[in-house]
Amino acid sequence: MTRLRRDPAAFAADGERLRISGGMAGLMSAALGIAGGSMEVLLTGPWPTASDAGYAAFLLANRTPVLAQSMLFVFSSAALIWFLGYVRSYLYRREGGPGTLAGIAFTAGVLGAGLNILGQAAQITLTLPSQAAVAPGVAAAVADLCLVTLGLANLPAGVMFTAIAVVSLRMKASPVVLGWIAACAAAASFLSALSLIPESGPLAPMGWLTTLLRLVPLVWYVPAAVLLMRRPV
């Protein structure tokens, strides 16, 4: 019984297409994340505090943009997981040996993406029609769960960027500037996790500094995705 053999050139072509799809997934993740953040401009006003008696009314009035935002963020995380699979392969080839740091980066990145999806699940719950009859205190608790989950997602993200920075800077896996951007993204991620502590101020969960820190990883994702499409995994 003979085994079917494919032309090596066909394998190479398939690998090239899949590698490019990995880079495109990274760009798509960034684009969807930016689109999700832009939904804030469609809200009728700033997010009320969790203890605000008008919280339920705010969600009812803004159901469409809030739901759209969450779904954009969810699909952004899904695209990120696809992208991270190719980032792992890229780092593994350049790290050599058992590829420990590449494995840490991938595992931590997927964990962070998963926590982001869970955080959005809490926000999507608040947009369901059944929530109109929920007491404000219960809605506030669900909203707090969303903020806490999204805040904790920054911890594995920080571990991921730390591993990427080490491989990039110590083992020359990418241009030096990209390695330093990963180091800055790691610092921004760890600092973002601390936003769960202040009750008010720029580093509070809804503070302006926290919002800016969330944008720092995008500065790495976009050029990294382009690099992945230009260099073999």
Task: Describe the 3D structure.
By secondary structure, the protein is mainly alpha-helical. It contains eight helices and no strands. It has helices spanning 8-38, 55-61, 63-95, 100-126, 136-152, 154-170, 176-193, 208-230. The two termini are 35 Å apart. The model has no long low-confidence stretch (mean pLDDT 88).
Features:
mainly alpha, 233 residues, 8 helices
Write the layout of secondary structure elements.
Elements: H1 8-38, H2 55-61, H3 63-95, H4 100-126, H5 136-152, H6 154-170, H7 176-193, H8 208-230
- Described by the principal axes of the CA atoms, the overall outline is elongated
* Poorly predicted runs of 5 or more residues: none
The number of strands is 0
How much of the sequence lies in strands comes to under 5%
Mean pLDDT: 88
Q: How large is the count of helical segments? A: 8
The profile of the biggest β sheet is: none
From the N-terminal CA to the C-terminal CA, the straight-line distance is 35 Å
- Rg, rounded, reads 20 Å
Structural class: mainly alpha
Helix % is: over 70%
Element pattern in H and E: HHHHHHHH
Short summary of the structure?
The chain is mainly alpha-helical. The chain has helices at 8-38, 55-61, 63-95, 100-126, 136-152, 154-170, 176-193, 208-230.
